């Protein structure tokens, strides 16, 4: 089936992607006034769905909206979009809806636009062999904990990395390491795993949460702490985490090898546990 014909969900109806249409007055289109979720599904089983839905509720709440559906309803909405033979992700976007005229201010009585589709997860084997990243000054806004569709800064930062043959941009603010343009970051130094604290500078990544649970279950020394940029220069390992790329080891940063330039033992340990979780959860 061509991607154009694949089934999508829009405002209560399923239809082929090519037939799904929204108004040009939709506030998501005009202002990026909406939030989204990306939920992985392994062979038809949604991974950490409750955590994704709870983050969605928080994102909506932060922009003064409420979830239009319950967890059970979301599950029912997603099922027809999923292929039980494939690894896919659900992309869910909710905007504030369509107003009568273009105006920054909004009223509370708009009907949200709800859109969901699935897509195959792109192969990541090549990234698991070690990737290149660069550090770059964070140009985003102050509410990075909200999974807002307004992603202009993120896409420009990611593109800057791609232009320099890197898989990801690692964002720096006030001399501190925050996260990737579309991922969270972990750093290993002298047997301790570090990750920046969860505040409004970073997205509360679900993969980050899964990885932290695995680390703590193994009783590996771990700290959620501010990480200075210089720490990256002396790191034993650097990993980036996200729902579609899982845990990616960074072996080259700013054109210099991370430690010996090979994938570290801690990554192997945590990635093995992550793969087990994926297979059995
Ligand atoms: N930070 C940012 C800025 C992101 O866009 C993402 C998701 N692509 C993440 C972190 C990782 O979040 P998750 O593990 O929930 O995919």
Plain-language structure description:
There is one protein chain. The protein has 281 residues and is α+β, with helices and mostly antiparallel strands. 27% of the residues lie in helices and 30% in strands. The chain contains eight helices and 16 strands. Strands 7, 8, 9, 10, 11, 12, 13, 14, 15 and 16 form a ten-stranded mixed sheet that branches. Strands 2-1-6-5-3-4 form a six-stranded antiparallel sheet. The site of 4'-deoxy-4'-aminopyridoxal-5'-phosphate has 14 residues, from α6 and β14.
Write the layout of secondary structure elements.
Elements: E1 7-10, E2 13-16, H1 27-31, E3 34-42, E4 45-46, H2 49-62, H3 71-78, E5 87-95, E6 113-120, H4 125-128, E7 131-137, H5 152-163, E8 168-173, E9 176-180, E10 184-189, E11 192-195, H6 206-217, E12 222-224, E13 227-228, H7 229-233, E14 237-242, E15 246-253, E16 256-257, H8 265-280
Parallel strand pairs: 7-8, 7-15, 11-12
Antiparallel strand pairs: 1-2, 1-6, 3-4, 3-5, 5-6, 8-9, 9-13, 10-11, 10-14, 14-15, 15-16
The protein binds 4'-deoxy-4'-aminopyridoxal-5'-phosphate.
Contiguous helical run count:
8
> Can you summarize the main beta sheet?
10 strands, mixed
Termini Cα gap:
30 Å
Helix/strand-derived category reads alpha+beta
Q: Please trace the helix and strand order, writing H or E for each element.
A: EEHEEHHEEHEHEEEEHEEHEEEH
Radius of gyration: 19 Å
Beta-strand segment tally: 16
Global morphology: globular
Average predicted confidence as pLDDT: 97
Low-confidence stretches: none
β-strand amount: 25-35%
Helix proportion of residues, in percent? 25-40%
Distinct ligands, ions and cofactors found in the model: 4'-deoxy-4'-aminopyridoxal-5'-phosphate
């Amino acid at each position: 089936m061509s991607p154009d014909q694949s089934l999508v969900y829009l405002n209560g109806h399923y239809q082929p992607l090519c037939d799904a249409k929204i108004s040009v007055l939709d506030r998501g289109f005009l202002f990026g006034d909406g939030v989204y979720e990306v939920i992985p599904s392994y062979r038809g089983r949604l991974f950490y769905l409750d955590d994704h839905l709870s983050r969605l509720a928080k994102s909506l709440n932060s922009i003064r909206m409420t979830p239009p559906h319950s967890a059970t309803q979301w599950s029912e909405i997603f099922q027809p979009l999923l292929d039980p033979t494939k690894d896919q992700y659900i992309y869910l976007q909710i905007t504030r809806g369509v107003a009568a005229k273009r105006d920054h201010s909004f009223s509370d009585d708009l009907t949200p636009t709800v859109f969901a589709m699935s897509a195959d997860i792109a192969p990541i084997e090549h990234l698991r062999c070690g990737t290149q990243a660069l550090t770059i000054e964070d140009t985003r806004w102050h509410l990075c904990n909200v999974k807002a569709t307004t992603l202009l800064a993120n896409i420009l930062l990611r593109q800057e990395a791609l232009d320099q043959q890197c898989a990801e941009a690692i964002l720096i603010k006030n001399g501190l390491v925050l996260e990737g343009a579309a991922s969270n970051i972990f750093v290993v130094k002298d047997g301790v795993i570090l990750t920046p604290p969860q505040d409004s500078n970073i997205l509360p990544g679900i993969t980050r949460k899964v990885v932290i649970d695995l680390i703590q279950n193994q009783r590996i020394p771990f700290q959620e702490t501010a990480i200075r940029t210089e720490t990256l220069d002396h790191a034993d390992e650097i990993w980036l985490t996200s729902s579609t790329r899982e845990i990616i080891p960074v072996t080259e940063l700013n054109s210099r090898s991370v430690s010996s330039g090979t994938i570290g033992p801690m990554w192997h340990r945590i990635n093995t546990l992550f793969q087990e979780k994926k297979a059995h959860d």
